Amino acid sequence: MSIFIKFIFFNIIVATVLSINCCGKYEYGPQFSLRSKKSRVAASWDINSIGSQILSNNGDSINWKLERSSNLTISEKLFNNGNPQTNSYSGSWEFASLKKQLAIIIDGNTTLYEIKRLTENEMWLDDDVSYLDGNIYKLKKKKFNWY
């Protein structure tokens, strides 16, 4: 191969790598994923923290099950003065604003969350899309034991 062809090939590779690094949709990544956004969102998620509150510190747990069919189930176990209270909600979910937001619809009420991070095992959601004092919900994909 001539030097000119090698130079052109090198420039194409550099341009491809640079375009991949700058095309991430979400503020905290990932920059590139082979899985679709819907396949990454459709899972069972445990909320680890909301803002500075770590849920597992006091035994609270909140699970969101987002199905590919857009069905949603939320299960909560929250402790109030040492007494557990359980709640369950059903609804649906969908993407909004060019898949930059997640809309949670329960009983006809819609709550929008800005997606800050969406990886295979982690999702961060901002509950205030106006960027004013929003809490970041940090979710981890629920691990299943197959025994």
Task: Walk me through this protein's architecture.
There is one protein chain. β3 and β4 (71-80) form a beta hairpin. The protein has two helices and nine strands; from the N terminus they run ααβββββββββ. The longest helix is centred in the N-terminal third of the chain and has 19 residues, at 3-21. It is elongated. It has an eight-stranded antiparallel beta barrel. The chain is an alpha+beta fold and 147 residues long. It is 16% helix and 46% strand. It has one domain: Lipocalin (Beta Barrel), CATH 2.40.128.280. The relative contact order is 0.16. The model has no long low-confidence stretch (mean pLDDT 86). The chain has helices spanning 3-21, 37-41, and strands at 43-50, 53-54, 61-66, 71-80, 83-96, 101-106, 109-118, 122-126, 136-141.
Strand content: over 45%
CATH architecture: Beta Barrel
Q: Name the helicity range.
A: 10-25%
Number of domains: 1
Shape: elongated
| Strands, total number | 9
Number of helices: 2
Report the CATH topology name.
Answer: Lipocalin
CATH hierarchy, class: Mainly Beta
Amino- and carboxy-terminal Cα gap: 57 Å
N-to-C series of helices and strands: HHEEEEEEEEE
Unreliable spans = none
